[in-house]
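Thread amino acids onto this structure.
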């Protein structure tokens, strides 16, 4: 499998790159600052490009089996980074004739499947604190879901820097109840598994620690 990763220097993106390379997969990492990509491998191709550079992004996704957009906001201020990434990935895939896209979102803006306390107390507070990044993710999901491509949206909860465990709970009908966190390494693991799982095409999946 050949894959392209947007947001390859972020927490989840870096893990996706590392795990894919370890599995012998060809990886194209799309980055703005290559000095932040602390990975080297003969199967790794680095493309330095902004999300506005349609030609470079089209070339980066051409001939690849899947594109994973792992972009995310680093601060709580207004942002469109996830939405911009979704627009850019969709446009590049269309131009290149590709179809498979995985988008990393978050379970935070959504309450389906949550328990009463989480859905009615915790999430409203969280929604106020993180309203800008949450709004960005909701908008990005809407764009991807409306597309004609073979998309999968993956919603993790709070991200941690723990080790790769491979123990992951997943639901396509709502959030994982009691699933308040997950290690970034396990998010990457799930993304790579989902990339080749046709049953997840045009599905939104919430994941958490198993």
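Threaded sequence (210 positions):
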């Amino acid at each position: 499998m050949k894959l392209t990763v947007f947001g390859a220097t972020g927490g989840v993106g870096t893990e996706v790159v590392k795990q894919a390379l370890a599995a012998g997969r060809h990886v194209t990492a799309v980055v703005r600052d290559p000095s932040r990509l602390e990975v080297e491998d003969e199967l790794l191709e680095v493309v330095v490009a902004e999300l506005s550079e349609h030609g470079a992004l089209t070339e980066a996704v051409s001939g690849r089996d899947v594109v994973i957009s792992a972009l995310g906001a680093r601060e709580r201020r207004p942002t469109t980074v996830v939405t911009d990434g979704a627009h850019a990935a969709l446009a590049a895939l269309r131009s290149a004739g590709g179809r498979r896209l995985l988008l990393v979102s978050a379970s935070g803006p959504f309450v389906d499947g949550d328990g009463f306390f989480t859905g009615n107390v915790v999430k409203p507070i969280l929604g106020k604190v993180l309203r800008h990044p949450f709004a960005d993710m909701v908008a990005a999901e809407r764009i991807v879901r409306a597309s004609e491509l073979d998309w999968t949206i993956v919603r993790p909860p709070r991200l941690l820097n723990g080790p790769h465990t491979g123990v992951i709970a997943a639901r396509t009908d709502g959030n994982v109840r009691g699933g308040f966190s997950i290690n970034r390494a396990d998010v990457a693991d799930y993304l790579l598994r989902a990339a080749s799982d046709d049953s997840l095409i045009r599905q939104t999946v919430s994941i958490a620690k198993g």
